[in-house]
Please model this.
Amino acid sequence: MSNILLVYPDPVAIHPRYPNALLPLAAVLLDKGHKVDIFDEQFDDYKKININKYDIVGISILTGPQISNALKIAAWIKKKASHLPVIWGGVHCSLLPYQTAKNKYVDVAVKGEGEQTLLELIDALQGSRSCLANVKGIVFKAGDDIISTEDREFFDLNKLPILPYHLLSSFHRYSNIKRKIIYFQSSRGCPFSCGFCYSNAVHKRSWRAMSPERVIKELRYIRDNFKPELVAFIDDELFIDQKRVSHICRGIIDFDLKIKWTSSGRYDQAYKYDNDFLELLKESGCVGISFGGESGSTNILREINKGITIEQAKTTVGNFRKNKLPSTVNFMAGFPGEKKEDLLKTFDFIDELTLTDPDLMVNSISIYTPFPNTPLYQKALDGGFKDRGSLESWGSYFYNDVNNLPWIDKRLRKLLKTISLLTECEFNRRGRFKSRGLFEDNPIKRILYNILSYSAKLRWRHRFFAIPLEWDLLDIYLRLKKSGER
Model:
């Protein structure tokens, strides 16, 4: 049996990110008798790792600064233990497996789901390098050649062992308001094809789910062993099968789990939910569902292939308000072909939705970020976006950054930058969604956040986004910090 180190490099995010990709890998490894540690660079110094105790290292990456930190850690590992195989996985590897495998610090890149692949890789690496060609779902170097094996079949989530949450030292650290939140994924993939989303490239529009019984089994384990304040379902699309969700809700009630939970959904499904289903969600402990509204412009919704309508969003918000079930909504801007009048329609749409539900939480208006091999990527390239061309170059790529959008003119770029920062603060939040616990361990940050939130409310109310000095200062701070999110 092998001793495996799974590494989550620092993504340099505004708030710590949960290393959800590593726990399923750790689960299957432990189930087969391997020893596993998880290292999270967001909280610990990689130079303190006793690297000589491990047989294999796995690194998970998302596109952006996390790649730079991954390369830094991999270089250190190779310097300390050059013989140690370093396996790379994660969404970025699935988007660009060949490009990833070319890097000198990458021994193997995993494309697609990694659970079964990692198990077979360990056997192959403990045997001989020639065995790698027999492992599905990988890309690796063989002399001057890059070898890609056939894609692996999707993993049966019902065979996934209970996740080893104990490998994470503290759940509070992954919540920006220091709550004990456990993140749980009961399904993978999505049958839709939103233009900005990675899911097509990774999951091939396939949706796979745990049975309701398997979900309840894990929720009981979570409740009994960790007593979380909240369980957050991080499925790409939890509500694809409404009957399945109903069974899960009834299981939560029947087993008297008394948990609070949240998830995300789609307006084109949710507007059809009847009062009985919404009541069932509430009775089972649902305290909120988040939706992607993306734009208030019908033209933009069509261009990005979102598959929802303005009316579906309005109906959903009204129904959730009537049934006293909280909901939140996220928007995006800066898509290829988007004009200022489209953005202004989004502003007006936000105001209209918050009139329908004064307690509706609008999370933010984030800036469209082109990711390779996503449906909109070619349009981004046609609009002047420059492909980064190498693994290390993607490490200096930032999410939510107007500099990724060469098709946007200077004045609109300035407005987008201001809006994206402004809406990260409490420009519209009321009641239960006010972030009372945010930055509670840092009084200075808390005071500054309150000042920015007050400014955000005033600017939004009066649509005054000119001379945004406070937001320019925040942008400078984030750049100096080299934050992966603007």
